[in-house]
From TrEMBL:
UniProt keyword Repeat, yes or no: no
Protein name per UniProt: Ent-kaurene oxidase, chloroplastic
An annotated Gene Ontology molecular function: heme binding
Recorded family membership: Belongs to the cytochrome P450 family.
Subcellular location: Membrane
Cofactor(s) recorded in Swiss-Prot or TrEMBL: heme
TM annotation in the entry: 6-30
InterPro entries in alphabetical order: Cyt_P450, Cyt_P450_CS, Cyt_P450_E_grp-I, Cyt_P450_sf, KO_chloroplastic
A cellular-component GO term for this protein: endoplasmic reticulum
Keyword Metal-binding: yes
Topology of the protein relative to the lipid bilayer: Single-pass membrane protein
């Protein structure tokens, strides 16, 4: 057979399959050889391994989009740290606070680089946001920008009026609904998330926008449509799976449907952001000082696209995490009248007949315990975006080779039976014990830790506690009977599969 015939045969489906099979087997045997060399060159024991299949590893065991629960179950057998195979990739899974803190602090230099799926790479413009960027000068500079203008303690005081307006508007809408539809259940998520979206636009663009015309889409988008385009669609798209993520040596094979879907999602988002920026600049006389102004004046080295991405990061974080935590907390309290009454009594004792304010939050330990227990049971981000091991290192007393990926299973840490008694149970009282540090922000690990701790933790905690406190102070809550066991989650964050529908009654 000459060269032309050989190339033709390999271009056929059968030939392509043969190339893939031979290439996969070659890499598998190469991995076995390299693994043997690693074991020979280190005195540390190798990581426990979850048994899998040749070539595909443990992928079939992860076919459901809830890997955090599968990882936690495996930890009961293989310990707090173990490795699995996702195709040709080695993934090291961390499931306990101790080993996670070691990774985040002690071994941070060796595992600070992000490892992104193809979907997340596109949707973050290749690490152009603080949460996903590598630990480099871009990260340090942009983190300083967002803390200085929006999320740091001093900036949070400047943004206080926007948060107060959010809580007040939410309360007013609930009172109006209760008056007009006293026997109907309310979709709290829909109401609260639109309010949070408005808050995010005020902070980033200086003005809340009800609708915007997007020239490239030839359409005028409503507030709800903007929310879907900038937040909800992205949260679903971020967990979209491209099989080439697991077999990098097959990147030359196109996956057109996936690529088109993610690229269109990115294009729509960027065009909506562009139109929002243009609209608020035209109305500059009626808008307030905002994050956009700050970035354009201080971020001299930032491109137009990077500025849009940094604005979008604040919009999606503000519009999602607080609503996830608040909805789950109200859901649990609406199912448990005794704990709801206990929180109401605490607020009444501290605030009297006055409305709860941010200054009173530190005097409400049970409210704080409810928030902490909620983000422990329903970790807003169950698994921290993957990191890449750039040099041989040690974790949990095991050897972790360069080239591995690290999955920090926050859900697993927060459901570790060695740390938490009855971890599946929602029990705020566990944070009221004498040994508990009442204001320990990272006790539940929900906001990460070390140098990469979540920069929006303070705002999320403040908004959620204020919302929970005010909603319980002014209303009695009860979920409809058909929702008692509705605790499934969906998407990148731990949203309820179905929005909470609750019956509310104003307190006298």
């Amino acid at each position: 057979m000459d060269l032309v015939q050989l190339l033709y045969s390999l271009s056929t489906p059968v030939g392509t399959a043969l190339v893939i099979a031979v290439g996969g087997l070659s890499l598998w045997f190469l991995k076995l050889f390299v693994d043997h060399q690693w074991k020979s060159n280190t005195k540390l024991p190798p990581l426990p391994k979850v048994p899998g299949l040749p070539l595909i590893g443990n992928l079939l065991q992860l076919k459901e989009k809830k890997p955090h629960k599968t990882f936690t179950k495996w930890a009961e057998t293989y310990g707090p740290i173990y490795s699995i195979r996702t195709g040709s990739n080695t993934l090291v899974v961390l499931n306990s606070n101790d080993v996670v803190k070691e990774a985040m602090v002690t071994r941070f230099p060796a595992i600070s680089t992000r490892k992104l799926s193809k979907a997340v790479k596109v949707l973050t413009s290749d690490k152009s946001i603080v949460a996903i960027s590598d630990y480099n000068e871009f990260y340090k500079t942009t983190k300083r920008h967002v803390l200085t203008h929006l999320l740091g303690p001093i900036a949070q005081k400047r943004c206080r009026m926007h948060r107060d307006a959010l809580i007040e508007n939410t309360s007013d809408q609930l009172h109006a609904f209760s008056k007009n539809c006293p026997l109907e259940a309310i979709n709290f998520r829909e109401l609260f998330q639109l309010g949070l979206f408005g808050l995010a636009m005020k902070q980033t663009l200086g003005k809340d926008v009800d609708s915007v015309y997007v020239e490239e889409l030839r359409a005028t988008l409503s507030r709800q449509e903007m929310l879907e385009c900038l937040v909800l669609d992205i949260l679903v798209g971020a967990i979209d799976v491209d099989w080439r993520d697991f077999f990098p040596y097959l990147n030359w094979i196109p996956n057109r449907n996936f690529e088109k879907r993610i690229e269109q999602m990115d294009l729509r988002r960027m065009e909506v952001l562009k139109s929002l920026i243009q609209k608020t600049k035209i109305q500059s006389a009626s808008k307030e000082e905002c994050y956009l102004d700050y970035l354009e004046s201080e971020g001299k080295m930032l491109s137009e696209r990077q500025i849009r991405m940094l604005l979008w990061e604040v919009i999606i974080a503000t519009s999602d995490t607080p609503v996830v935590a608040t909805e789950w907390a109200i859901y649990e309290l609406a199912r448990d009248s005794k704990r709801q009454d206990r929180l109401y009594e605490e607020i009444s004792r501290v605030c009297g007949s006055d409305k709860i304010t941010e200054e009173k939050l530190h005097q409400l330990p049970y409210l704080y315990a409810i928030f902490q227990e909620t983000i422990r049971v329903y970790s807003p981000i169950p698994i921290i975006p993957l990191r890449y091991v750039c040099e041989d290192t040690e974790l949990g007393g095991y050897f972790v080779p360069s080239g591995s990926e690290i999955a920090i299973n926050i859900y697993g840490c927060n459901h570790d039976k060695n740390v938490w008694e009855n971890p599946e149970e929602w029990n705020p009282e566990r944070f009221m014990e004498d040994k508990s540090e009442t204001m320990d922000l990272h006790k539940s690990m929900a906001f990460g830790g070390g140098k990469r701790v979540c920069v929006g933790a303070l705002e999320a905690m403040t908004i959620s506690r204020m919302a929970i406190g005010r909603l319980i102070q002014e209303f009695e809550w009860r979920v409809t009977d058909d929702q008692v066991n509705d605790v499934d989650t969906v998407g990148l964050t731990s949203r309820k599969l179905h929005p909470m529908l609750a019956l509310i009654k104003p307190r006298s």
